[in-house]
Model the fold of this input.
Amino acid sequence: MSREGAGRHGRGGRDDDGSRERSMVPKATFRSYYGRPVLKPPVWEWKVPAYLFTGGLSAGSALLAAGADLTRRPELARAGRIGGFGALLVSTYLLVADLGRPERFHHMLRVAKPSSPMSMGTWILVAYGPGSALAAAAELLPAGVRASLPGRLLRMAARPAGLSAALLAPGLASYTAVLLSQTAVPAWHDARRELPFVFTGSAAASGAGLGMLLAPVAEAGPARRLGVVGAAAELVASRLVDRRPGLVTEAYTTGRPHRLRQASEYLTLGGALTALTLARRSRAAAAAGGLALLAGSVLQRFGTFEAGVVSTKDPAYVVKPQRERLAARAEGGG
Amino acid sequence: MTQDNSFYGPLSDPAGNAGHTDHPPRVGFFTDTSVCIGCKACEVACKEWNAIPEDGIDLLGMSFDNTGMLGASSWRHVAFVEQQRPLGRQDAGLADLPVGPSSTQETAEVVADALEVAKRGGGDLGTAPVDLGFPSFDLPGAGTGAEARTEFRWLMSSDVCKHCTHAGCLDVCPTGALFRTEFGTVVVQPDICNGCGYCVSGCPYGVIDRRPDDGRAWKCTMCYDRLRDGMEPACAKACPTDSIQYGPLDELRERADRRLAQLHEAGVTEAQLYGRDPDDGVGGDGAFFLLLDDPEVYGFPPDPVVPTRDLMSMWKHAGVAASALLAASAAVFLGGARR
Ligand code: SF4
Ligand code: SF4
Done:
């Protein structure tokens, strides 16, 4: 409910309407109830955007790990499997802790509801979890147990487990976009066509970033390439979000969300450029590039999240576009 | 298209669509704000009947509205709008002003101007800046003719959950805590809700909210318990002017149409129905309104749409993005098999 926003969108009315003269041009003001928000701001706090990042990171890592496993890149596979599962554990914590009643988290499992992306996401996670866990467990086996029968069985199960996680990973990386868009929050709902690409791109870039950070340069070729591809997708899609016509885009292109997403853009771009160049030779450069990609992904998620929150707090984002829609419909004779 | 139809568009029988067989007719509220006197009996009755906790006792400076908005612990909310309206064919040029702050400013200016000519400049406690004309035995305004009326008018409206035909809150709830009752209303089950908060962002009207100390989501139940016992909801029962009318939705819609025609005939051309139309973005509201100004003036969204309308398209876009991710992840390994 920033004052700045109030002036910009003409909520106050007095500033831009100080005179009582009747003006010839209709004012681009809008009416509201004491400037109160029409919508409720999301009750979600930092844990949800943090989960958007860790969930995407887990998915990107699982994909890289499966490919690395199939093409005999043991270090890259190990980084992806352990990193992917670690990110999944953090995700689970964030998701449960964000509930108003964490002890009731299992109520999510009472139903499978196609109209609720959160329900669909829960089941994607349930299906994804075991594969991710098994593959990571095989990597974490103490040397003494590896040769034993259970140890050998686990290591045999690791590849199919990792592949199952990799097959579900794209779902995990993309459903969160639908989760945000399937709301009345103007900035999220309006960006519904672009967000899946922002989020899968960001997931790929972060998974790749982790691979570049943890795996030796010789094995990390696919991570570098995935980093470049993911970063490109994320950058292009998020530029498309910024170029959408209409007032709601301002939620992305102004204020704190804009600053977060701009920082994300620089980091992601820097990470991708490093992956294309220095990271092919220097482990230190690869680690720096990987960190940049990871940080870029974090900031992208927080920026997108906050743009949505901002768009619920200023009634202009609700009233103006809806008024314009009604006016267009009236003009169209409908 | 039947699939689409249960997410968006007109739907004649939401309860049947949700799986209820042999159910009673869909019921709702018709709130005729033209007869609301702003007594807040509905707010009180709702709090009392549903044992809703206190949620802040504040003076908000928004006319007589000290509730502010609907929320987890305010399931009825009476809005007060103070307006300057042109009289007859005069035009004071105020029509473009936003309602709230500017009229408050007007009021403040009137008071400030009047204070200058009041006794001792209004310096005495209890000095009234203007003679309000009471106590008196006459009706207000009875001593003078219509020419003495001011340009001022008050709009009052009791807001409530709309019990949408396509309810965004219900669609997104991942636990099944929100459900469609046999009456066609939308209710949260407090023993199921785990406070995920999704419904709060799913509602295009900003109705449902999470109670901070309790962690669960709450909103109007249309007194589900009373309905099951054949009684009308507490707010409708308490409303002294029948501004809040409860009944089968079909009947209410007919009644609202008649009332609208009556008002238009009487020259109240600004009267409009809000949420009555089954073709609107939420398939029509179970609780709809007769308003005397544009919806946003009362804090309503002018053209709400249930987010679920775009569900299929959103999943398709996500599907394309997911496939692209899978393909890219495979391609980066094929690309340079050596390193
Ligand atoms: S979407 Fe909002 S207005 Fe509609 S039933 Fe749910 S809480 Fe009520
Ligand atoms: S907060 Fe409760 S009622 Fe709302 S969507 Fe989550 S589980 Fe359902």
Observations:
- Chain B touches chain A through 88 residues (CB under 8 Å).
